Amino acid sequence: MASSLIWGQYVVVKAEDDRSITIDNGAVYQEDGVIRDVGPYDVLKSKYTPDQVLGGPRFAVIPGLVNAHSHGRGLTTFQLGSVDDALELKLIRDWARRTTDPYLATLFSAMQLISGGVTTVMYNHIQAPPDVMADEARTVLKAFGEAGLRVAFSIYFGNQNRLAYDDAQLLSTLPADLANEVRGRIQRLEMPDEDYLDLVAELHRSYDKGADGLVRVLVSPMNVQWCSERLLTKSREYATRLGAPIHIHLAETVYQKLYALRKFGVTPLRYLHDLGFLGPDVSLAHAVWVTEEDIRLLRQTGAAVCHNPSSNLRFGSGTAPVLPMLNEGVRVALGTDGTSMNDEDDLFDEMRLALRLHRLPGIPVRAPTVHQVFKMATVNGAHVTGFTSVGTLETGQRADLVLIDLQHPSAPYLSPNVGIVELILARVRRSDVHTVVIDGEVVYREGRFPRLDQDAIVRELQNNAARDQEAALAEGGRMAQRLVPYVQDFFQEWDHSGVEPYYAVNSRT
Length: 509
Ligand SMILES: [Zn+2]
Prior knowledge:
This protein is α/β, with parallel strands linked by helices.
């Protein structure tokens, strides 16, 4: 039996909407990965004889953070040569992006997440060609397992409209040689829906150990415009049968909303609702272009939103109406989409942005509270990933926690009036993360990962990213460069002047 007592000047037990439960000079006692007791340090110290004591009066103990939307490529898309653009164009320009070995990339990504205080990640694997999809999935899961990070794993899968939101129409506008080349490229991803869903079912059987385990396997149809109705319906059926949560991108850009309005006469969210797709086991990444009626449907069905403010700003997608969602009682979690504001996947920065982005002018200022934002990155993230056993430091929960060194955030002076959650949201950064414990095990301490040879991983990843990929990149780049003007023309014809802007929903709270 391995036990430890984790001690801090503050213990943040649980975030609620308008307050957080905290203990001054508190401690958490865990045995074999389960929190057995939480309370004043002096009391717990005399009650238990742990194998190890971590922390001290210089620290805050907080629940491990949950990054609720990530594609975890290790190096960011920017580092791999893809600059920011509107999402619909970036997805084409990504054809000239360097690739990296999934094992090394995942190990590196896990190190980035853990060193930033993240103990659980919603990892959404980008669809690979069918001949490598299963191997890639197992490789990624192996790497997360070696890093000791808790992961809600899914493969992002679509079966249509890989170029624009009507591929047949777009292809008809291309010169014949380009159309042929492009068709060849996208055909490489073709795979029967059942093969994907059966793979998910197999991964679920092999890896998913439920809410107390380290791995959950989710079903992840890509998005309304990228999935046939049959794929969405089948995905829902499989998820129900497996007892697996669903993670889907939705209404990220105005064109995605327009797609559903033009094709189905309703918003993407209403469309999913009418299909019987939504429920408390569904989380929607982005949900930027939703209406007030959509927000009511979210509340009624219990479906949650994974908010990615940096990513939405970087791709010019807009800003999700988070304040109306919170006011309506919708569950909102927080993610970085691997595309954070400082390109570092730092969830503290993401919390800071989420806190400040939704402030509406006037007296009083209407804004999410620090506690609501901290709840997004802990309790709500735990819910959407299917790990209800984390996100708080209550007795009986799994022991995922982070020691924050308060020296820098409170130097050279901090008013005693400042609350610990306020301080975390205002001033804490990745560099203040001292120790990270996942399932009772120290997986990060003072810049080192006891489970990993971090220098070797970084060196090998550097070499791997820098390997000669010039021929493939040049081919993809040339094709993308020719294609982008046609994609631009395609969307230019989609008049979005009649679509209610996202900021109108944002401002009516
Ligand atoms: Zn995403």
